Every structure is written in structure tokens, then in C-alpha cells.
TrEMBL record:
<dbReference type="InterPro" id="IPR008183">
    <property type="entry name" value="Aldose_1/G6P_1-epimerase"/>
</dbReference>
<dbReference type="GO" id="GO:0030246">
    <property type="term" value="F:carbohydrate binding"/>
</dbReference>
<dbReference type="Pfam" id="PF01263">
    <property type="entry name" value="Aldose_epim"/>
</dbReference>
<dbReference type="InterPro" id="IPR014718">
    <property type="entry name" value="GH-type_carb-bd"/>
</dbReference>
<protein>
    <recommendedName>
        <fullName>Aldose epimerase</fullName>
    </recommendedName>
</protein>
<dbReference type="InterPro" id="IPR011013">
    <property type="entry name" value="Gal_mutarotase_sf_dom"/>
</dbReference>
<dbReference type="GO" id="GO:0005975">
    <property type="term" value="P:carbohydrate metabolic process"/>
</dbReference>
<dbReference type="GO" id="GO:0016853">
    <property type="term" value="F:isomerase activity"/>
</dbReference>
């Protein structure tokens, strides 16, 4: 085997960069400075993909896409005539660790001269990652400190570990129109939006069962799209499939009906939970 394909020992869990949260056989890793949930493990099942052979931070764990999911058409945020990168700037800028203990970590990103260039609003984004037995809870609070309404269309981008040969064997409930066995995973892997109604359950062969659940806030759901995506098997990182709960599909930030509108001086919250049960 080529040395370039050998696992990078410095990426084995936990690295020096990772905070470790734990509860009754459940482990969660967090890399605070890039707001990355880097690890979710229940028993012996490592639920999230870890790029041990490539070290590619862009194919790792559960990053946050904010203020926009995916690409904007021509990269343009029409409302303000600015440009935003694919999946926003949340994963590109340094976050501040506010607090951490054995069961949760709280991170924060505030508007700055850098963010105002592309997203001219005053905001505070606060992320709380918490662990309980078999469960990861991710709370995103978005405070609008501007004098005008702040449009936003974030999403979550979990990379779930699965062998290439097992992708057609995924069993998925709650995602209308998705059938793993009907997809050509070898030549035409999916990059497809599906309606998300608040809960999807996935059974991973020989691993266990995972539920992706949004907890409604004030009786309302914010995540209405589930993007399913993976890489071609010829890519160095491909042993994963992404089931991405997002506010809206591609370019949603430019569609008022498909984004969130946060009034001045108010805060909107999204709470996502991953429930995992390892196969006995």
C-alpha cells in the first residue's frame, strides 16, 4: 500500500484539537475553532466519516453551512449584491469557545468586517453541541442585531460513514422518493434534494440504525429540504453518504419563500438531533 493511503495517526480520535464529550458509551468530538462536530460514536459504531487516509477537513464529520447552503446562482446574494461562497462562511472563519464540560460545548461567531463584506448584517450565531446516551443534540441560535430583517438559509452537512459496497443496501424511512437500491452509486451518485418532514431513519448494514430529527421550536419546523450526496468511488474520500437537513435547497437564500426571515432584535433557533442505536 502506498504511504499516501496509510491512515494518518494524527487524525485518529481524539486528536489534540478535539474536545471530547461523553455519556454512557456515547462519544462526541468537537473542533471548536472551525465549529466542526468531528466525531459521533455509539458503542463501537463510528457514525460520522473521518478522513483518515486524506486528512481532508472538507470531508469530515458534521460541519455547519451558514448563512447559505450550497451554491448561490452565480455566487450572488441578490438582496445585497454581494457574493457568498458555497456553503457560506461559517466553516471558514474562527469560532470562539464560550463554555465546555463533559456533556456539552458552546461556540459562537459574531459579525465582523470580514462577514459584512458578503453578508451585511449584524449577527451572533451560537452553537451548542450536547451528548446523551445514543444521542447528539445540535442547537443553532441565530440572533439578528441589525435594524433590518435578516434573511438566512443554513443547513447541516453530516458525512455518515458507509462502505461503497453498502450504499445500495441502505434502508431509509421517511424520505419520500428515495430508494438506495435504484441509484447507480458507481457512476451517477446522488446530489439530490428531497422534501424533509422532520424525521428520517436510516439503517446502515452491519452497523446500526440512525434517526435524523428536527425538534420544532415554537411549534414550527425550519428544515424543509434533505440533500442526499456522495462522491464517486474514484475520489480519495468516498466512503460516506450525506443526508443533509437544510432550510431550503440550492439558492434558497435568494428565494424569500424558502428561507428564514429573522426580525430585528430577535433570535431564531434550529435544533437537530441524531439518534443512533448500534447493531447488537
Amino acid at each position: 500500500m502506498s504511504s499516501s493511503l496509510l491512515p494518518h495517526d494524527f487524525l485518529r480520535f481524539p486528536t489534540e484539537r478535539e474536545l471530547v464529550l461523553r455519556d454512557q458509551g456515547t462519544l462526541v468530538g468537537v473542533i471548536p475553532e472551525i465549529c466542526l462536530v468531528s466525531h459521533f460514536q455509539v458503542g463501537n459504531w463510528e457514525v460520522l466519516y473521518r478522513p483518515l487516509t486524506t486528512g481532508n477537513v472538507r470531508r469530515w464529520g458534521l460541519p455547519l453551512m451558514i448563512p447559505n447552503f450550497s451554491r448561490l446562482r452565480n455566487g450572488l446574494f441578490v438582496e445585497k449584491g454581494t457574493t457568498l461562497p458555497i456553503h457560506g462562511f461559517g466553516r471558514l472563519l474562527p469560532w470562539t469557545l464560550l463554555a465546555a464540560d463533559e456533556h456539552q460545548a458552546q461556540l459562537q461567531l459574531q459579525s465582523s468586517e470580514v462577514t459584512r463584506v458578503c453578508y451585511p448584517y449584524e449577527f451572533t450565531f451560537t452553537v451548542t453541541v450536547a451528548v446523551a446516551s445514543g444521542r447528539l443534540t445540535y442547537t443553532l441560535e441565530m440572533a439578528n442585531r441589525s435594524a433590518e430583517t435578516m434573511p438566512i438559509a443554513p443547513g447541516f452537512h453530516p458525512y455518515f460513514a458507509v462502505a461503497q459496497a453498502d450504499k445500495p443496501r441502505l434502508q431509509v424511512q421517511g424520505l419520500a422518493g428515495f430508494e438506495a437500491a435504484a441509484i447507480d452509486w458507481e457512476r451517477q451518485p446522488p446530489d439530490t434534494p428531497y422534501p424533509f418532514s422532520g424525521e428520517v431513519t436510516i439503517t446502515f448494514p452491519e452497523q446500526g440504525t440512525l434517526s435524523i430529527v428536527e425538534l420544532p421550536q415554537n411549534g414550527r419546523y425550519a428544515l424543509h429540504n434533505m440533500q442526499v450526496w456522495t462522491e464517486l468511488p474514484t475520489r480519495p474520500d468516498h466512503a460516506f453518504v450525506c443526508f443533509e437537513p437544510t432550510v431550503g435547497s440550492e439558492d434558497a437564500l435568494n428565494r424569500p419563500g424558502d428561507r428564514l426571515e429573522i426580525a430585528p432584535g430577535t433570535t431564531a433557533s434550529i435544533v437537530l438531533q441524531l439518534h443512533a442505536q448500534a447493531q447488537a
